[in-house]
Amino acid sequence: MKKILAVDYGSKRIGLAVNHEWLAEPLKIIPNNEALSRIFEIIQQEKIEIVLIGVADGVIADQAKIFGKNIAEKAGKTVEVIEVDETLSSVEIHKKLTQGAMPKKQRQQPIDHFAAAAILQDYIDTHPA
Q1: Which of these, 4, 59, 75, 120, is most buried using a 10 Å CB contact count?
Q2: What is d(CA 56, CA 68) in angstroms, rounded to the nearest whole number?
């Protein structure tokens, strides 16, 4: 299976997740203003072949698409950048967290990396290698 990095784009924070074979794992949350350089470090360290960019609706969707194009331009042909629908991924994560036994204080922390993992797992499940 190819190594994949999923990006949950936000104007302030960006959530990242990577796969380990068929399983998506939340990686980290990074500030938007550091995102491109940090993502390229991860691409090199993890030997990423595909970058998924979560795209929803509205202005943030346009920003996410531009961000994906910036990654594609910088990476050249070494990495495939794919836009995927991430509508309601954060809502789904909030719902799952409230169903579990996680303390409220932890549920109120940023969840962008969990949203990225949900985007990635959905992609893995619907795109068998």
Answers
A1: 120
A2: 13
Look up the CATH number of the domain holding residue 106. Answer: 3.30.420.140
Domain span at 118 = 4-126
Contact 30, 38 (CB under 8 A): yes
CA-closest candidate to residue 59, choices 7, 11, 123, 124: 11
Strands 50-55 and 80-85: parallel
Provide the residue count of the chain. Answer: 129
Number of separate domains in the chain: 1
Q: What is the mean pLDDT of the chain?
A: 87
Q: What is the pTM of this model?
A: 0.85
Looking at residue 84, the DSSP 8-state letter turns out to be: E
Between the alpha carbon of residue 97 and those of residues 14, 23, 38, 66, 128, the distances in Å are 19, 19, 27, 30, 27
CA atoms of 96 and 14, how far apart (whole Å):
20
